[in-house]
TrEMBL record:
The lineage of its organism: Bacteria, Pseudomonadati, Pseudomonadota, Alphaproteobacteria, Rhodobacterales. This is UPF0056 membrane protein. GO terms for cellular component: plasma membrane. It is a multi-pass membrane protein. It comes from Tritonibacter mobilis F1926. It is found in: Cell membrane. The keyword Membrane applies. The chain crosses the membrane at residues 6-30, 42-61, 67-92, 113-135, 147-168, 175-197. Pfam families: MarC. Coiled coil: none annotated. InterPro entries: Multi_antbiot-R_MarC.
C-alpha cells in the first residue's frame, strides 16, 4: 500500500514544480486575443499532452532519454533555449502581430498548446525528473498509478485555473494585458536562462 505521507508529499512537490497558479497568467499572455473556445481547446490539448509526456517518463524514466543518447542536463539546456525564443516573442509582441493578420484562425506555429505550454512549462525538466524520482521510490504498477493520479489531479487544478483566464483578461484590460505580457516575457526569459545554467552546471561548465 502507498502511504498517505508519500501521496501528500508527491502532490505538494508536483504542484510547486508545475505551478498552476504561476502558469495561469502565462497562459493568458500566450493566448492573448483568442476566444474562450480557442483558449479552452488549447488548455485541453496542453493538459492531455503534458499528462501523456509525464506518463511516458514515469513508466520508462531516464531510459527514454538514454536510449537516444540525451542526458537530463542536455534536455534542460534545450528546453531553456526554446523557452527563451518564446520569451522574445512575448517581449516584442510577435504573437499578437501574427494573430491580427490571421483573424480567428490560429496558425499551427502560433498554437502554444504543445510548446511552450505542455513542453517545457507543464512537462519540463523539473516535473519529468520529479515523476522519475517518485516512481523510483515505489516501483511497479501501484506506484505508477499513484504518481499518475497525482499528476492528473495537479493538471486538473491547472485546467480549472485556465478556465477563468478570460475573467482575468477582462479585469486587466488591453493596457494591463500588454504590461503583463511584457513582464511575463522577461520572467520567462530569466527562467529559460536558469534552465540553461542548471544544465551547464551539471556538465561542469558553470559554478
Amino acid at each position: 500500500m502507498i502511504d498517505t505521507a508519500f501521496l501528500i508529499t508527491s502532490f505538494v512537490t508536483l504542484f510547486v514544480i508545475i505551478d498552476p497558479i504561476g502558469l495561469m497568467p502565462v497562459f493568458l499572455a500566450l493566448t492573448q486575443g483568442m476566444t474562450s473556445k480557442q483558449r479552452r481547446a488549447i488548455a485541453i490539448r496542453a493538459s492531455i499532452t503534458g499528462v501523456g509526456i509525464l506518463a511516458v517518463f514515469a513508466l520508462f524514466g531516464e531510459s527514454v532519454l538514454g536510449f537516444i543518447g540525451i542526458s537530463m542536463p542536455a534536455f534542460r539546456v534545450a528546453g531553456g533555449i526554446l523557452l527563451f525564443l518564446t520569451a522574445l516573442d512575448m517581449l516584442f509582441e510577435r504573437r499578437t502581430a501574427r494573430r491580427q493578420h490571421q483573424g480567428d484562425e490560429i496558425a499551427p506555429e502560433d498554437d502554444p498548446s504543445v510548446f511552450p505550454m505542455a513542453i517545457p512549462l507543464i512537462a519540463g525538466p523539473g516535473s519529468i525528473a520529479t515523476v522519475i524520482l517518485l516512481t523510483g521510490q515505489h516501483p511497479g504498477i501501484e506506484g505508477f498509478a499513484s504518481v499518475m493520479a497525482i499528476v492528473v489531479a495537479v493538471i486538473a487544478l491547472m485546467l480549472g485555473m485556465f478556465s477563468i483566464s478570460g475573467l482575468l483578461e477582462r479585469l486587466l484590460g488591453p493596457v494591463g494585458i500588454n504590461v503583463a505580457t511584457r513582464l511575463l516575457g522577461m520572467l520567462l526569459a530569466a527562467l529559460s536562462v536558469q534552465f540553461v545554467l542548471e544544465g551547464l552546471r551539471a556538465f561542469g561548465f558553470a559554478s
